[in-house]
Amino acid sequence: MAAEAATTSIDEGLNEDGGRWKDLDKLILRPGTIVGDNFEPGPELKENLMKMVRVLVVGAGGLGCELLKDLALSGFLNLEVIDMDTIDVSNLNRQFLFRFGDVGKPKAEVAAKCVMERISGVNIVPHFCRIEDKDISFFDNFHIIVLGLDSIEARSYINAVACSYLEYDSDGNPSDGIKPMVDGGTEGFKGHARVIIPGLTPCFECNIWLFPPQVKFPLCTLAETPRTAAHCIEYAHLIKWGEALKRAELFGISGVTYSLTQGVVKNIVPAIASTNAIVSAACALEALKIMTDCSKTMSNYLMYNGTEGIHSKMTAFDRDKDCLVCGPGILIELDISVTLSKFIDLLGEHPKLLLSKPSITHRGNNLYMQAPPVLEEMTRSNLNLLLFDLIGKIPKDIIHATGTTSINGKRTSCLRKLRVIFKGTAEDVTDMDTMGAVYRFVDKDNPEFWGYPVPKF
Amino acid sequence: MIKLFKQKEKQREQAENAHGRAPVKKQSAGELRLHKGVSGVEQWRGLGNMSELNLPKTSTIAFPNGKDDLMNFEVTLQPDEGYYLGGSFVFTFQVPPIYPHEAPKVKCKTKVYHPNIDLEGNVCLNILREDWKPVLNINTIVYGLNLLFTQPNDEDPLNQDAAAVLRDNPKLFETNVRRAMAGGYVGQFFFPRCMVGSK
Ligand SMILES: [Zn+2]
After folding, report:
1. Do B36 and A134 touch (CB under 8 A)?
2. Residues of B taking part in catalysis
3. Contacts of A120 (CB under 8 A, 6+ apart)
4. A225-249 residues labelled b (16+ CB within 10 A) or e (exposed)
5. Are A84 and A128 a contacting pair, CB within 8 Å?
6. Mean of the pLDDT values across residues A212-223?
7. Which residues are in the E2 binding domain (chain A) (predicted)?
8. Is B80 left (phi over 0), alpha (psi -120 to 50) or beta?
9. Contact at 8 Å (CB) between B74 and B90?
10. How far is A224 from chain B (nearest CA, A)?
11. Which residue of B has its CA nearest to A209?
12. Residue B81 class from Cβ within 10 Å (0-12 exposed, 13-18 middle, 19+ buried)?
C-alpha cells in the first residue's frame, strides 16, 4: 500500500507542470552554454535524476537538515541519511526539522519523516548508527555522497571508503568506480563547500592540512598558571572532568563519559543557522551539477566567511599525486607462487620503488614488520608463506609498504601504495575478456611502461 | 555523471550477456579493500609510525592488542641517569585516526612523583599539545619523555608540590623520588614500587 502510494506521488512530481520543479526544469530541460561536457537536457535526464540517482547524506544535524531539504527540493528523490545522534533541546534553534516533542528521538529518523511529509514524492531511508557500523557494501549503491559532518575523523573515514571504489587503468587514469562526494562544513560564521571526485580532484586526505589543528594550551598552564577564561574551561574539561562523574554519582545521574564531556564542551561554539543554509545550498547545487552536468562543477573548494561582512573565495587545490588514499599506487603484477619474502625482495628491485627493508600491510593486517623487534618476531613466520594466500586469495588488491629509499643520495623513509595483480587468476582472465577497455594490463616487457630497463620478475 | 553511471551499467550487462552468464552480484570493490570500521588510513599511519621508530636504548615498546593494532601501544622508559635512574615507567600511547594532524594521546600509567606529571598520569610536555606539528613523530615524543626524567623542571609544574621541592631543596627531592620509586608514601600520597626488576 505504502509503496504504491509513494510511486504514484513520484509520477505526480514528474508531471507537475509549472509547479514544484519549475526552476529545476529550466536547468535540466534546456540546453545551455556553460554546461558540463556530457549534458543531455531533456525529460530522460529528469527522470533519471528523480528515479535512478541514490544519494547518501551523512549527518542529520544543522547542516544535514538543510541538505536533506535542499536536495529533495532539487529533484533528488531517493535519499538515505545516516546519523548516530538523538535530538537535544539545544538543537532546536537551528535544526529546523525537529520540534520540542522530538527531543530524545534519533535525528536521522525524525529528519527523514519530516522531509517526506513536506515534499511529496521524496523517499528517505534513515539510519540511526555510526557510519563505521555499516558494512562497506552499504556504500555500493549510492551514486553520490553528501557530507554534513563536524568531525575530521568521520570525513577521513568516509573519504577512504569512497576512494576505495576507485579503479585505475594501467596508465594510472581512473577507469571505474568513481564515487563523487560533496563536503560541507560550518563553524560559527565560517564555512566551506567542496567537491571531491576521487581520482580527478583532490580527496579529503590530499589536503587534510586545510583543517587547522585545534588550539591546545599547555597542560601546565591550565593547571598552574591560567591566564584566560578559555584556560579555565579547558582545565575543567581536561583535568577535572572526573569531578563531573563524582557529581553525577552524587545526584544519581548516569551517562557522564569522557566523550560526552567533550561533546558538551565542543558545542559551546555557537552554530549559526544562516551559515548552515548558505553552505548547504552550495552543496546541493554542486550535487545537482555533478549528477546532471547541467553546469560545470566548482573547482574545487569554496570558503565562506560571514564574520565581518560576507566574503567567499574559491580555490582550486591540487591533488597529491602520491596520496595513499586516492592515488593510483604502483602497479605490480605477480605470480601466484610469490612468497612474502620474495615480494619484499621485488620491492627492493622495482625501479619505481627501490624500497629497502619494507614492512608490509594488507587491509589492517600487518603481514611483515621490519621493526620494532617485538613486531618483527610476531610476523616473521609469514615470510615463507605465499602472498596470494596471505591476502585471502584476492586476485587484485591494494597493499601498503613502508621502507626506506634513496632520494638524491639521502635515505628517506616512505610509505607506498601498491596495486598488486596476480597473473592467471579468475579475475585476471574475466577482466581481460570482458572489460578490455577498462582494465588494460601492463605489458611488462615494454620498456616504455617502466621508463627503465625491464626488470625480471 | 548520470550518463557515465548508465554507460558503466550497460557495459557490465553486455559483458555478462556476452558470456552467457547470469548476472552475479559482484563483490563490492570497497569490500575487497576495507574492513568495516577500519579505514585502512589508520593502519598505514600506524605502519609509517613503526617504520620510522628509532627508540632510545632506555626504552622498549609493547603492543597489548597484538600485531595488527599499531595505534595503541605502550612505551616503557628506564632512565639511565638522573633522579629516576633504576625506575621503570610505562606510558600508554593512543594514536588518533588523523595522526599526524593531531598528536598522540600519551599518559603515564605508572604513578610517579614528578614535577611535570600529575598523579592521574597527565604529562606536561610541550610537543604533546601546544607545540605539536605534523612533522614530529613518536620518536620525538619518546625522546621528550626521556628528557623529562633526566631533566625534570620546576618551571612547567603539573605536580606543584614536587616542583616546589625540586626548586627549593633538590636533596629532599632526590630522597622523595627514591622513596616513591621504592614503593612508599611521599606526603599523603602512596606510590607503588616501580624499580627495574620489581616484583
Ligand atoms: Zn587523495
Report:
1. yes
2. 124
3. A9, A12, A13
4. eeeeeeeeebbebbbebeebeeeee
5. yes
6. 70
7. 332-423
8. alpha
9. yes
10. 7
11. B101
12. exposed
Is residue B9 less than 8 Å (CB to CB) from chain A?
A: no
Whether B23 and chain A come into contact, CB under 8 Å, resolves to no
pLDDT of residue A5: 45
CA A410 vs CA A4, A357, A373, A404: distances in Å = 68, 15, 25, 10
Which residue reads 595503541 in cell numbers? Answer: B72
Q: Least CA distance to B7: which residue of chain A?
A: A176
Whether the CB of A177 is below 8 Å from some CB of chain B: the reply is yes
Which residue, chain included where needed, has cell 597484538?
Answer: B66
Strand order in the sheet with A330-334: A330-334, A410-422, A396-407, A356-362, A365-368
Q: B179 in helix, strand or coil?
A: helix
Cell of B186: 611521599
DSSP state of B194: -
| Tens digits of residue pLDDT in B110-142 | 999 999 999 999 999 988 988 888 888 888 899
Q: Which amino acid is at A332?
A: I
Is the CB of residue A143 less than 8 Å from the CB of residue A51?
Answer: no
Label residue A213 exposed, middle or buried (CB < 10 Å: 0-12, 13-18, 19+). Answer: middle
CA distances from B31 to A78, A165, A398, B34, B169 (A): 23, 9, 12, 6, 63
| A218 in reach of chain B (CB within 8 A) | yes
Strand A54-58 to A78-82 pairing: parallel
List C-alpha distances in Å: B166 to B92, B159, B173, B184, B190.
26, 11, 5, 19, 19
CB contact under 8 A, A140 and B120: no
Cα–Cα distance measured from residue A363 to residue A397, given in angstroms and rounded to the nearest whole number: 9
Q: Which of A34-38, A154-158, A245-249, A264-268 has the lowest mean pLDDT?
A: A264-268
**Which of B34, B29, B2, B9 has the alpha carbon at shortest distance from A54?**
B2
